[in-house]
Specification:
Strand content: under 5%
Order of helices and strands: HEEHHHHH
Helix content: 40-55%
Structural class: mainly alpha
Radius of gyration: 22 Å
Number of helices: 6
Shape: elongated
Distance between the termini: 50 Å
Number of domains: 1
Number of strands: 2
Length: about 120
């Protein structure tokens, strides 16, 4: 199960094929979810509105159709501002990245070096 989740996370975070990159109206391109997060954090609200408005949401469509992250695509459909979309994508990238990190093991308790305490009968 964990392996399947790791594979899905890697797939969502990977670069898309060159012929599926997202072309933004300001000329920049995005090849993966991290680049989308960075772009949303730095683009103007006008550029955002060019791609996400009452008629369409290109970001949501690209994430769903190309990256195949249906959960993120659904969340992006509900984002009506650039800043909200940036937070949503950044949080998703962080969650997916964190899921790929090996779990930290609890430190082992060292054996006691003090005097033995046996129960007196």
């Amino acid at each position: 199960m964990t392996t399947l989740m790791n594979q899905e996370a890697k797939k969502c975070l990977a670069d898309v094929p060159e012929d599926h990159v997202f072309w933004c109206c300001d000329g920049r391109t995005m090849r993966n979810m991290q680049e989308l997060a960075e772009a949303l954090n730095t683009m103007t609200d006008e550029v955002f509105a060019c791609h996400a408005n009452q008629q369409k949401n290109d970001f949501s469509t690209w994430v769903g159709d190309t990256i195949r992250d249906d959960a993120l695509a659904a969340d992006l459909r509900q984002a009506f501002s650039r800043s909200a979309a940036a937070v949503i994508v950044t949080q998703r990238v962080t969650a997916l990245s964190d899921s790929l990190k090996p779990a930290k093991k609890a430190p082992r308790k060292k054996p006691s070096t003090g005097p033995s305490r046996k129960k007196k009968v």
